[in-house]
Amino acid sequence: PATLNQRPRWRHVDGICANGAVPVKGKLLGFFAWKIKMLYCGVCSLPPEYCEFGPDFEKCKPWLVENASDLYPELVKEKIAQQLGGMTVSDVGNSSKTQEEEIKRLPGGKIKKKEKLEVLVERVTRNKRKCLTTIKGLDMFGVKLADASKKLGKKFASGASVVKGPTEKEQIDVQGDILLDIVEFITETWQNIPESAIYFIEDGKKVPAC
User: Fold this and answer.
1) Which H/E stretch holds residue 161?
2) What is the pLDDT of the chain when averaged over all its residues?
3) Residues of the chain predicted below pLDDT 50
4) Alpha carbon distance, N-terminus to C-terminus of the chain
5) pTM for the whole thing?
6) Burial of 31 (C-beta count, 10 Å sphere; 0-12/13-18/19+)
7) Could you report the per-residue pLDDT of 33-67, keeping only the tens digit for each?
8) How far apart are alpha carbons 98 and 106 in whole angstroms?
């Protein structure tokens, strides 16, 4: 009889050896045996590497991407490309629904981002003496500027009016310097406006008030 090193190796699938014999505790009379787990497509029942030659390759693609992506890397790339193709400009790198809602398409295909909810407060000096405090953005939080102007004038015992700013958007001008007290007044009067949404404009730069 052949020695151990001279004996051929056999394999079996699901308990049956390649020559049809049944192994005993993983061995067949000294011949080596082992199990091989075969993977078959859940759509066409062919081995995954043969799906592209079968009649239902298009139907097999989703299953192959999920279960045999190493055999079909091009299908994975194709799926990623399709997902990216359906995104808007602001979705690249971030596909959140919030950002999709923040863009607005203008005539000509241009895209305009939705304005950020914030209140801007700036101290303006005119004629080197007269000081004015401008407040922008209260209306973005649902505040009626006419009512806000009256409350500001009463609170600080000063003239307050609604005017159009440089960008044609309405703002409130209050006579005098009220920067020290304006943040507390806004957050207490309109509780839906958080302190984190209020900014000071200093030397043309936006600085958080908190």
Assistant:
1) strand 160-164
2) 76
3) 1-32, 88-92, 95-96
4) 91
5) 0.47
6) middle
7) 555 667 888 888 888 888 888 888 888 888 888 88
8) 19
Instruction: Say whether 181 sits in a helix, a strand or coil.
Output: helix
Cβ proximity of 197 and 209 under 8 Å = no
Q: Which tokens hold the place of 187?
A: 């957050």
The burial class, CB within 10 Å (0-12 / 13-18 / 19+), for 142 is exposed
Q: Which residues of 34-59 are buried (b: 16+ CB within 10 A; e: fewer)?
A: eeeeeeebebbebebeebeeeeebee
What the block records as the tokens of 114 is 């939705």
**Nearest Cα to 207, choosing from 116, 121, 113, 117?**
121
Q: Is 204 left (phi over 0), alpha (psi -120 to 50) or beta?
A: left
Task: Determine the residue type at 130.
Answer: K
